[in-house]
Amino acid sequence: MLGAGLAMDAFSVSLADGLSERNLNAGRVLLIAGVFAAFQFLMPLTGWLLVHTAEERFSSLQKFIPWIALLLLLYIGGKMLAEGIRTRREKAAGVSVETEGGKTVLTAGEILVQGVATSIDALSVGFTIASYTAAAAFGSSAIIGIVTLFICIAGLIIGRQIGTRLSGSASILGGVILIGIGIEIWVRGVFF
Questions:
Q1: pLDDT band at 100 (very low <50, low <70, confident <90, very high)
Q2: Binning pLDDT at 50, 70 and 90, where does residue 94 land?
């Protein structure tokens, strides 16, 4: 259950990526979902390790986690939104556009930034499992990662199906979704 709850931000970003990614084949789906799953696996372990090594130093930085996620998702979402608007304008003006059907290709850096932004809240899970042994913390993190992998694969496939129907508006919608997720993470982290 914890894995599914933690994977919801990654699922939403996967939907947005599926909407806007033009080269979404099986390998690409596994790559993107795998990055999200890897970060969802690593973050609780990192949190567990921090509690066992440098708890007092890290606790002062915890208040910045929602801000970091907000900035990362605003950046990626804003970029997708701007590209979608640019593509739509160029099509309306009859200019040849680089993207196919308003779709973009996410770079490795963008996928990594999304992976960090959607999993940063899983870092705090490491604090809640601080009493676990190393093996139990690893097992819990592995379950979270595996659940995230399957949820993100579903999100990418669903997003791709919707994106195929939306064509030129998919990148704009994907950017808006990412910005919304960033704001939601920030509000949840700062006010709740």
A1: very low
A2: low
The ranges assigned to domains in the chain are 2-191
Q: What residues contact residue 39 under an 8 Å CB cut-off, 6+ apart?
A: 115, 116, 118, 119, 122
| Mean pLDDT score, 46-54 | 82
Query: Is residue 114 within 8 Å of 76, Cβ to Cβ?
Result: yes
How far is Cα 185 from Cα 190, in angstroms, rounded to an integer? 8
User: 118-169 pLDDT, tens per residue?
Assistant: 888 788 778 778 788 999 999 999 999 999 999 999 999 998 888 767 655 7
